[in-house]
Design goal:
12 strands, globular, Rossmann fold
């Protein structure tokens, strides 16, 4: 990368979640991997006050929590050094007034928002809010994992620069440690992901046996007899074993991710899984259908693909390996290089 030496002298601030498996932490690891050392990080865990209020945060206290978050962050930024780039992940907590005040203090910084959901989706408080929409035109660069769906829609918010920044995989977490072994595959389907009603309805109507791993499913009601909840939260080695050992790894895009993609589009194949995912324009640009993964458009096609993949499981290792090789191109190191090249 031609500009990598230039960027190593720049100072970065990342703002987001401190959860070990969050995309923010993946990008932090990528900065380190690229030997970019002048990187600071602000999260809830940066302040004892924020940590305390975060535990109490719910829909009734959300606005109070956001207010406290802004005050703590203002104090943090005023006492910290000047930054060249400030990267906010989503930024649900911020409003336009706060950002303008902060930009006066950090007058030379370029502000970047990496928005990992659809910013126009106000249905779920965890996805977006009105403050997000009012702040879109503040950012020098507004990055989303939605390309075709949002390009035109974001223009009415007077967006300065929209960057299509797909998800990827984390080299430290998502990888294959053991070789594939034929004839040792589980003749079944797995789904890994948090519970929600949309996913439950899809799986119930699928009418195929599926082993489910993920938070919230153990409390789910009215699950189909075909569905078996195996475990709550799983990570690391366990996920790699699941994807590698099952004949089918099902990826269900959430309702708000329609026409886009999610993290598992890259994580499943790079960990050795044979992926069955929803067909759309973006995913078709990443992977070759029937050669690197399998895709479906509706429930009926998903059933047919599952039946085919289970029947031919021992003949599909070429597809599995091709998906693994293709997905290795899409690391967060690669995504960070692309982002840097566009914001310099």
């Amino acid at each position: 990368m031609k500009n990598l030496e230039i960027i190593k002298n720049k100072k970065f601030l990342l703002i987001g979640s401190d959860f070990p498996f969050s995309i923010e932490k993946s990008y932090l690891r990528s900065f380190k991997s690229l030997n970019i050392k002048k990187v600071s990080f602000f999260s809830v865990n940066s302040s004892k006050i924020l940590k305390t209020f975060n535990k109490l945060n719910n829909k009734f206290t959300r606005e109070l929590y956001y207010f406290i978050y802004r005050q703590v962050f203002k104090n943090f930024l005023k006492t910290e050094k000047k930054f060249d780039y400030i990267i906010i992940f989503k930024g649900l907590e911020f409003n336009s007034k706060t950002l303008k005040i902060l930009s006066n203090h950090q007058s030379n910084a370029k502000w970047i928002n990496i928005f990992t959901d659809n910013p126009l989706n106000l249905k779920y408080a965890s996805c977006s809010n009105l403050n997000v929409l009012k702040c879109i035109n503040f950012y020098d660069f507004f990055c989303t994992s939605f390309s075709y769906k949002l390009n035109k829609k974001l223009k009415k918010f007077k967006i300065k620069k929209h960057i299509f920044l797909p998800f990827g995989y984390d080299k430290k977490i998502h990888f294959v440690k053991k070789k594939f072994k034929k004839f040792q595959l589980k003749n079944n389907v797995n789904f890994i992901g948090a519970y929600d009603e949309y996913r439950k309805n899809f799986l119930n109507n699928l009418k195929r046996e599926v082993d489910i791993y993920g938070p919230g499913w153990n409390k789910a009601k009215n699950l189909s007899k075909f569905l078996k909840v195996k475990s709550n939260f799983v990570s690391g080695k366990k996920i790699r074993e699941i994807y590698r050992n099952y004949s089918v790894s099902l990826n269900i895009l959430r309702e708000q991710d329609k026409d886009s993609h999610n993290m598992k589009v890259f994580e499943i194949p790079v960990m050795g899984g044979l992926m069955l995912t929803q067909r759309n324009r973006e995913t078709n640009n990443f992977f070759l259908e029937n050669k690197e993964c399998f895709m479906y458009s509706d429930l009926n096609e998903a059933r047919k693909k599952i039946d085919f993949m289970l029947k031919k499981k021992n003949n599909l290792f070429k597809v599995r390996k091709a998906g693994l090789l293709k997905s290795r191109k899409y690391s967060y190191d690669f995504r960070l290089k692309k982002l840097i090249s566009k914001v310099l």
